[in-house]
């Protein structure tokens, strides 16, 4: 009896060791990847999804932030690479012009956006009247809003007629206020914005009708030269 009991105890211990060994092996084995079955009933491993490729956009996809879009367009024109984004720029200009004709509040109620939209639209050949700027007066602009004052001063430089009194008036008081800001800041280090103001006052962005006519003549010559290549 004692031999039978000892034999049973040994067998029980061996089975316990076998179970523990199997459990350890299961814990060490990696989990199988999720699988699916094809039409032949053979299990196949599901492919991992590929990471999305990054997309670089020059202009924001939202069409509501007109100020941001125009600012980016303005930078591209300043650094001379706007031709590489002709399609995107045309879309922004067309959209801005349609909102301008509707006198959209996002443009008209913000001084800086209104001034920049007028300047960029006119420089790109869109028919915008300076009468639309009649609501921009010295009293409507915060005296410490340097960026808006600078945009207004630039507006006065894109006059296409000697009789655009509104632009003359805007250029007069915005230039005076900008000069006052420069004088009050001379004792301190000029910020990048004030240095831009200083440059704009020393070298006007555009000089009324003559400069614009010169620009249009150059564009017309380039167009004629391009057409001659196909003759």
UniProtKB/TrEMBL annotation:
<feature type="domain" description="Terpene synthase N-terminal">
    <location>
        <begin position="61"/>
        <end position="201"/>
    </location>
</feature>
<dbReference type="InterPro" id="IPR036965">
    <property type="entry name" value="Terpene_synth_N_sf"/>
</dbReference>
<dbReference type="GO" id="GO:0010333">
    <property type="term" value="F:terpene synthase activity"/>
</dbReference>
<dbReference type="InterPro" id="IPR050148">
    <property type="entry name" value="Terpene_synthase-like"/>
</dbReference>
<dbReference type="InterPro" id="IPR008930">
    <property type="entry name" value="Terpenoid_cyclase/PrenylTrfase"/>
</dbReference>
<dbReference type="GO" id="GO:0016102">
    <property type="term" value="P:diterpenoid biosynthetic process"/>
</dbReference>
<dbReference type="InterPro" id="IPR001906">
    <property type="entry name" value="Terpene_synth_N"/>
</dbReference>
<feature type="region of interest" description="Disordered">
    <location>
        <begin position="22"/>
        <end position="41"/>
    </location>
</feature>
<dbReference type="Pfam" id="PF01397">
    <property type="entry name" value="Terpene_synth"/>
</dbReference>
<protein>
    <recommendedName>
        <fullName>Terpene synthase N-terminal domain-containing protein</fullName>
    </recommendedName>
</protein>
<dbReference type="GO" id="GO:0000287">
    <property type="term" value="F:magnesium ion binding"/>
</dbReference>
């Amino acid at each position: 009896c004692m031999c039978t009991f000892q034999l049973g105890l040994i067998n029980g211990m061996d089975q316990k060791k076998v179970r523990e060994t199997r459990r350890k092996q299961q814990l060490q084995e990696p989990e199988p990847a999720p699988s699916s079955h094809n039409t032949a009933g053979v299990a196949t491993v599901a492919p991992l999804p590929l990471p999305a490729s990054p997309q670089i956009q020059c202009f924001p996809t939202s069409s509501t932030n007109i100020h941001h879009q125009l600012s980016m367009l303005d930078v591209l024109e300043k650094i001379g690479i706007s031709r590489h984004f002709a399609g995107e720029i045309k879309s922004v200009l067309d959209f801005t012009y349609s909102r301008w004709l509707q006198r959209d509040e996002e443009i008209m109620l913000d001084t800086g956006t209104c001034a920049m939209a007028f300047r960029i639209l006119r420089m790109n050949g869109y028919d915008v009247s300076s009468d639309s700027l009649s609501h921009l007066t010295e009293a409507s602009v915060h005296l410490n809003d340097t960026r808006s004052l600078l945009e207004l001063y630039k507006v006065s430089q894109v006059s296409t007629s000697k009789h655009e009194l509104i632009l003359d008036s805007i250029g007069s008081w915005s230039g005076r206020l900008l000069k006052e800001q420069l004088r009050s800041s001379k004792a301190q280090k000029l910020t990048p914005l004030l240095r831009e103001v200083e440059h704009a006052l020393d070298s006007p962005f555009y000089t009324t009708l003559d400069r614009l006519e010169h620009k249009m003549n150059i564009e017309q010559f380039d167009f004629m030269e391009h057409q001659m290549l196909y003759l």
